[in-house]
Amino acid sequence: MDEHRIRHRAYEIWEQEGRPEGRRAEHWERACRELQEEDERAKEQGAEPQGLAQASADTGAGI
């Protein structure tokens, strides 16, 4: 899973919860869980998980 996506989602969670102190690990784990579920749903629907699609775009793969 793409670390950048996890970091971004964890930051969103942190902001939504009012920027609490001392819950970094909890937010990171929740972000991992949510993104994994999102990727699994996308896979079930036949779409490429967002992290893989972004990695391909970033590296120029497939060109």
What does this structure look like?
This protein has 63 residues and is mainly alpha-helical. The protein has one domain (3-59). The protein has three helices and no strands. It has helices at 3-16, 24-44, 50-59. The radius of gyration is 14 Å and the shape is elongated. The two termini are 22 Å apart.
Can you summarize this structure?
It contains three helices and no strands. By secondary structure, it is mostly helical.
Strand content: under 5%
Number of domains: 1
Give the structural class.
mainly alpha
Q: What is the overall number of helices?
A: 3
Largest sheet: none
Helix-strand topology string: HHH
Determine Rg (CA atoms, Å): 14 Å
List strands and helices in order, with pairings.
Blueprint: H1 3-16, H2 24-44, H3 50-59
Helix pairs in contact: 1-2
Features:
about 60 residues; mainly alpha; single chain; disordered C terminus; elongated
